[in-house]
Amino acid sequence: MFPEIFCALAGVFAILGRFLASLASRIPVLKNYLPDIQQKHVTFSDRKGLQCIASLIATVEETPQSIPARTQGHFPEWLNGCLIRIGPGKFEFGKEKYNHWFDGMALLHQFRMEKGAVTYKSRFLQSDTYKINSVNNRIIISEFGTLALPDPCKSVLGRFMSKFESPAMTDNTNVNCVRYKGDYYISTETNYMNKVDPETLEKTEKVDWSKFVAVNGATAHPHYDPDGTTYNMGNSYGPHGSCYNVIQVPPQKEDLEETIHGARVICSIPFDQKMKPSYYHSFGMTKNYVIFIEQPLKMNLWKLITSKVRGKAFLDGISWEPQHNTRFHVVDKHTGQLLPGVFYSKPFISFHQINAFEDQDCVVVDLCCHDDGRILNAYQLQNLRKTGEGLDQVYNSVTKAFPRRFVLPLGISTRASVGQNLSPLTYSSATAVKQADGKIWCSHENLHHEDLEEEGGIEFPQINYAQCNGMKYRFFYGCGFRHLVGDSLIKVDVVTKKLKVWRRDGFYPSEPVFVPIPGASEEDGGVILSVVITPNQNESAFLLVLDAKTFEELGRAEVPVAIPYGFHGTFVPKQ
């Protein structure tokens, strides 16, 4: 009896769904209030029996002297240079422990490749934070998820009064290795970067963004023009208004001692909510435009200002507020003007953009998107180090990231009718529909089939940057997430939406880095580099090299040292 009733109800709901979808197409504003039937997306999972990865998120020793790697297969003779990787590698000082994965002290890794041979070394970044914590053998400087405790040697009154002291900003830059004016910097999202020598991995200088431009920090994912001009984004807070700022850094030095001298803000975008700016990790860029996504992952400035008094870490001030939609801002790189179009979509968050390009007077933006913004809490160290059902529950509680395409039409005619799809791109099902209030409601196209859901979605996207950034492209590469860290490497064809996957059970690859074959014209003419680690004690970590076209393994270089799971990196070609 119940199955028949259930089937009948399902039929009724299906008819009702089609009716509502039809109604929404005629009255576009209803899309803001109706379930997104056409774009229903599976982002949660029900996996069981996940392998414990606690040893991948644990303190390790540095390897400051180069050691030879044991190679299998072959590394192409033309592949000469260093893969530099960065991520957390120390999670405690004395008896005090960090709470969040993002808090660990920065550890730099270098895999050097030369004429088929590979060596490895690593060094802890000698940041001021690392040094003062080491000298005191406790956590002195607060991090993203960990509030530093008052000095236990102080009196009770002294410890109480220390809550009202201005907190020191960390210079533990553990997120990415980036370039400015030909030099390499280890960066995070504070106002500090650390300049390093990619050959020795030694820190050479600490750079403060706020000494050069009026921002309180910048992202760890800048973009580069072909001439070396670099763009980034950072926030500014002040009595005359708080803004998201687009920053431009010149391509060349006028003096050998320069760092980011000449940096300037070319556009400032006011916060939608004065005391609750959006958290963002990256942005998009085309040949002519910067695309900033204001998403409903909010930073409560009052909570951040009072965090030390309240005994809370920075993470406590970030909240997912899906009652707000996501907004796209488009800035002309050449004039610094914010374009007038008002583009919105349903709430999502994106940590990493894939690529963006221009076509038929539209900006096309491809992103890895989560439908829920509460993922940051899942990466508390106590969660990552769980076992059994507890680990499964953490993984299944977070949304997965999937690649989506949005189309932002720029030349909007005043004669465009309400309800009209303004996208002229016949190759994309993404729509941009004019609303009665003049705003443009954007619905995405999924850049994948259902098989990507079986891979746990995709993150850490990379492209053939030198050839394709800001241009129409076909392929991107990333990590599949059937675990809380990447457990596969994936190549996505954004035209056919087909996948190629590399996976080995019990092994966890890092963000793929594309290195082009010198002189290659094909977009996927090159190799993929990834550092693969494992919690299996009888197995070694290794540098993997894949043929980017076939996604077949060419070779690997094993090293007999423990390597923790990290964040980002870059390939530095031999000069």
TrEMBL record:
Entry keywords, A to Z: Dioxygenase, Iron, Lipid metabolism, Metal-binding, Mitochondrion, Oxidoreductase
Statement: the UniProt record of this protein carries the keyword DNA damage: no
Binding-site positions, Fe cation: 221, 281, 352, 568
InterPro entries the UniProt entry points to: Carotenoid_Oase (IPR004294)
Pfam families linked: RPE65
UniProt-recorded name of the protein: Carotenoid-cleaving dioxygenase, mitochondrial
Catalytic reactions on record: all-trans-10'-apo-beta-carotenal + O2 = beta-ionone + 4,9-dimethyldodeca-2,4,6,8,10-pentaenedial; lutein + O2 = (3R,6R)-hydroxy-alpha-ionone + (3R)-3-hydroxy-10'-apo-beta-carotenal; all-trans-zeaxanthin + 2 O2 = 4,9-dimethyldodeca-2,4,6,8,10-pentaenedial + 2 (3R)-hydroxy-beta-ionone; (3R)-3-hydroxy-10'-apo-beta-carotenal + O2 = 4,9-dimethyldodeca-2,4,6,8,10-pentaenedial + (3R)-hydroxy-beta-ionone
A molecular function (GO) term: carotenoid dioxygenase activity
GO biological process assignments: carotene catabolic process; regulation of mitochondrial membrane potential; regulation of reactive oxygen species metabolic process; retinal metabolic process; xanthophyll catabolic process
Keyword Secreted included in the entry's annotation: no
Functional description taken from the UniProt entry: Broad specificity mitochondrial dioxygenase that mediates the asymmetric oxidative cleavage of carotenoids. Cleaves carotenes (pure hydrocarbon carotenoids) such as all-trans-beta-carotene and lycopene as well as xanthophylls (oxygenated carotenoids) such as zeaxanthin, lutein and beta-cryptoxanthin at both the 9,10 and the 9',10' carbon-carbon double bond. Through its function in carotenoids metabolism regulates oxidative stress and the production of important signaling molecules.
The protein's enzyme class: oxidoreductase
Record-listed E.C. numbers: 1.13.11.71
Cellular compartments annotated: Mitochondrion
GO CC terms in record: mitochondrion
Domain of life: Eukaryota
Protein family membership: Belongs to the carotenoid oxygenase family.
Cofactor or coenzyme needed: Fe(2+)
Co-factor note (free text): Binds 1 Fe(2+) ion per subunit.
